[in-house]
Specification:
By secondary structure, the protein is mostly helical. Helices cover 46% and strands 0% of the residues. It has five helices and no strands.
């Protein structure tokens, strides 16, 4: 019983600490900057006729932009998920899949039944000699650069 009372006091004490922080302590008002004011609208000659403005000039098309297909997003943009994906290769038919599987299994069986030549394991001395030679060759290449 004493334990549960101590636990409850610790929990309530921790929760009480959460209520003492204010938003100004986290982000003071002096640190906040106001957004830049918008420029005033240009006066028009007539209130009834709107002033026509020139359309912004279109940016020149680069070679990279010209090579991008309309279904592909430009590099750096998010893909358009509304465009159906196109496969890079045609899908295998069921007959092609079965034919390929049969060829692989036949090759596996032929490989498993083929006699194998015994491999002699190199001696520890041969391995040390090989390591020393490779080390010297590597150091020679590094020093030559």
């Amino acid at each position: 019983m004493m334990r549960s009372g101590a636990l409850a006091a610790a929990v309530f004490g921790a929760l009480a600490g959460c209520q003492t922080a204010s938003l100004e302590e986290v982000a003071p008002v002096s640190a906040m900057t106001a957004p830049a004011p918008l420029p005033p609208p240009a006066p028009s000659e007539s209130a009834e006729a709107p002033v026509a403005t020139a359309a912004p000039a279109a940016a020149p098309v680069t070679a990279m932009q010209a090579s991008v297909q309309p279904t592909e997003p430009p590099p750096g943009d998010y893909p358009n998920l509304n465009v159906p994906m196109q496969s890079a290769a045609p899908t295998l038919t069921e007959a092609e899949t079965l034919e390929g599987t049969a060829r692989l299994q036949a090759a596996r069986r032929a490989n498993a039944s083929a006699p194998r030549a015994p491999r002699d394991a190199p001696s520890p001395g041969d391995m040390r000699r090989l390591a020393r030679d490779r080390l010297q060759e590597t150091l020679r290449r590094i020093e030559a650069e």
